[in-house]
Design brief:
By secondary structure, the chain is of the alpha/beta class. The chain has a single domain, classed as TIM Barrel (Alpha-Beta Barrel), CATH 3.20.20. It has helices at about 20-25, 40-50, 75-90, 115-135, 145-155, 175, 195-205, 235-245, 250-265, and strands at about 1-5, 30-35, 55-60, 95-105, 140-145, 160-165, 185, 210. Strand 6 (about 160-165), helix 6 and strand 7 (about 185) form a beta-alpha-beta unit. The structure holds zinc ion (2 copies).
């Protein structure tokens, strides 16, 4: 099993000492560490040194888009973030992906409305450029912005990656598959309690499906209400095995193969 999207930045609820070995004992082969900002990305690099089960990603979440006006000393804050990200990816060969990055048009949860959407797009395109330059896959976060995200991704030929926590519904699956480059769908623990996602999974080609926790959020049944953990990705694997009507072993073989192919791990 591979958790292709975890946030393990140190917290009182998840002390990290020895966690890598615990995850291995729990049956995980790898954990991809997503980054919400550059501080997370640096912590991911530190965590990756503690155990070879961890594969770090580096990127900036759309909710972290700087709201400051452009600085006077040349460049603006978005440029500065992109330059720092570029340098980090350049200097750390073990970074397996750029992300998470993307668009979020969810005013109830973030300070962004369509007025700030342009800034999110600039930050997103900047990270796409870093991914292309360093030939890394992209971990895309898209919330209430599926069509806008697909329009941007569709304007690049040499890009591959995953639409993590896919919420585009059945109707956009073909649009994702039609994008230039190779694109995967990341499905999370909400598959265990959102019936609509079962049909979505049924329509995603087996060779384009990845499973993830997005921990500490989206805890699957039977642990709902608790903090999510990478090893709980097992419950998502079990649900997919049930949907596909194949054994858990066969499911693992297919899903893990997809993750290893995309992230080159
Ligand atoms: Zn996300
Ligand atoms: Zn995430």
């Amino acid at each position: 099993m591979i958790d292709t999207h975890a946030h393990l930045n140190p917290s009182p609820t998840l002390p990290l000492t020895g966690q890598g070995e615990n995850f291995r004992i729990a049956g995980l082969k790898a954990v991809i560490l997503s980054a919400g900002n550059l501080k997370d990305a640096k912590e991911n690099l530190v965590l990756a040194k503690t155990n070879s089960i961890f594969y770090p990603a580096a990127g900036i979440h759309p909710q972290e888009t700087p709201l400051d006006p452009p600085l006077k000393n040349g460049g603006n804050t978005i440029d500065m973030l992109i330059n720092e990200l570029d340098k980090m990816v350049e200097e750390n060969d073990n970074i397996v992906a750029v992300g998470e990055c993307g668009l979020e048009l969810n005013p109830s949860k973030s300070p962004f409305d369509r007025g700030d959407f342009k800034k999110q797009e600039i930050l997103f395109r900047g990270q796409i450029a870093v991914a292309i330059k360093h030939k890394k896959p992209l971990i895309v976060h898209s919330r209430k912005a599926s069509d806008e995200t697909l329009a941007i991704l569709g304007s690049y030929n040499n890009l591959r990656g995953v639409i993590h926590c896919y919420t585009g519904g059945k109707k956009r699956i073909q649009k994702v598959l039609d994008l230039p480059g190779e694109w995967y769908f990341g499905i999370d623990g909400n598959l265990t309690y959102e019936d609509g996602l079962v049909e979505v999974v049924n329509n995603i080609p087996k060779d384009r499906l990845l499973l993830e926790t997005d921990c500490p959020a989206l805890t699957p049944i039977p642990h709902r209400g608790e903090t999510n953990r990478p090893e709980y990705v097992k419950f998502v694997y079990e649900k997919v095995a049930e949907i596909w009507g194949v054994s858990l072993k066969e499911t693992e073989k297919i899903i893990d193969g997809n993750a290893m192919k995309l992230f080159k791990i």
